[in-house]
């Protein structure tokens, strides 16, 4: 097996660490968003959040889109539309599904990602990577069901919407790893978030776009728009320029575990077996994809009397 050169391996590991930090930030948003949507409609909260993120990014670098090529524009718009569709379908699915079912079904994008990469871009998936995918799925299943899910039948419409959301997330992860370039990460982030802001604002318009009414909610919105919005998206876009799609999906599968860990640390919830077993599986999966495989020892060249025409040099 051919290994990454040291510089590329270092960038790969830096990308994995960056994605892990992003999932930690996203994990902190679960209790915040859960609280804020009791006072604001979901679509309205997301619309205001991403409009603010786009404005902030453009305020920091107002000329970032100047001279941006058509490839990056089309890629950013496409990625923003896909991610916006994922958020909208996931949100509407969540209104009819138990939260445990929604979390597990959404996490199925971990399996969809390598399959999509294989079909779409003919990306070779190693046995080691498939093992990591299997461990991540097992960890998500243990985390979901050992924690105790809600009983009762699962609505077909909600399930279909959530599966569609998982598929959109998989498309976004695969396409971002394929299209993101380090030098265009900031501009691509602006186009993505700007597109998402437009999509979510349109989704929120029928009932009118509501904004926070208290200083506490505005503070929460600022955090969602800056750290958990603009900064996290920028970090993800840069990281996926150095990390394969399947690796990114496995690393990001730790997000619900971060959410539970923060609930344990900040809100005193008990750390049950679901967190220990599920988290252990996902952590092992991350180690498998985070550390590049070593090259196999080179075999001594075979002794031949004549060179092979067109053959590779030993």
UniProtKB/TrEMBL annotation:
Cell compartment(s), UniProt: Cell membrane
Record's keyword annotation contains Transmembrane helix: yes
InterPro entries: Diverse_Substrate_Transporter (IPR051258), EamA_dom (IPR000620), EmrE-like (IPR037185)
Domain EamA: 14-142, 158-290
Tagged with keyword Transferase: no
Residue ranges crossing the lipid bilayer per the database entry: 12-33, 39-60, 72-95, 101-121, 130-148, 154-174, 186-206, 218-235, 247-267, 273-293
Protein known as: DMT family transporter
């Amino acid at each position: 097996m051919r290994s990454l050169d040291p510089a590329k391996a270092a960038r790969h590991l830096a990308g994995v660490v960056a994605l892990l930090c992003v999932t930690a930030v996203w994990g902190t948003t679960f209790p915040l968003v859960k609280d804020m949507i009791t006072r604001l409609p979901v679509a309205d909260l997301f619309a205001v959040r991403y409009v603010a993120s786009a404005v902030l990014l453009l305020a920091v670098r107002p000329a970032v889109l100047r001279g941006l090529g058509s490839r990056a524009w089309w890629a950013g718009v496409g990625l923003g539309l896909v991610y916006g569709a994922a958020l909208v379908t996931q949100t509407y699915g969540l209104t009819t599904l138990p939260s445990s079912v929604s979390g597990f079904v959404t996490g199925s994008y971990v399996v969809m990602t390598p399959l999509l990469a294989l079909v779409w871009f003919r990306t070779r998936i190693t046995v080691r990577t498939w093992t990591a995918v299997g461990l991540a799925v097992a960890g998500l299943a243990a985390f979901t069901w050992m924690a105790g899910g809600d009983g009762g039948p699962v609505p077909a419409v909600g399930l279909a919407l959530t599966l569609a959301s998982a598929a959109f997330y998989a498309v976004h992860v695969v396409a971002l790893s394929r299209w993101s370039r380090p030098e265009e990460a900031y501009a691509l982030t602006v186009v993505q978030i700007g597109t998402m802001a437009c999509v979510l604002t349109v989704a929120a318009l029928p009932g009118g776009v509501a904004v926070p009414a208290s200083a506490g909610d505005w503070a929460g919105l600022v955090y969602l728009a800056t750290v958990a919005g603009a900064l996290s998206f920028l970090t993800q876009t840069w990281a996926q320029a150095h990390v394969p799609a399947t690796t990114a999906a496995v690393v990001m599968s730790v997000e619900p575990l971060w959410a539970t860990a923060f609930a344990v640390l900040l809100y005193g919830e008990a750390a049950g077996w679901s967190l220990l077993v599920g988290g252990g599986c996902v952590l092992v999966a991350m180690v498998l994809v985070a550390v590049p495989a070593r090259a196999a020892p080179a075999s001594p060249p075979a002794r031949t009397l004549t060179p092979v025409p067109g053959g590779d040099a030993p």
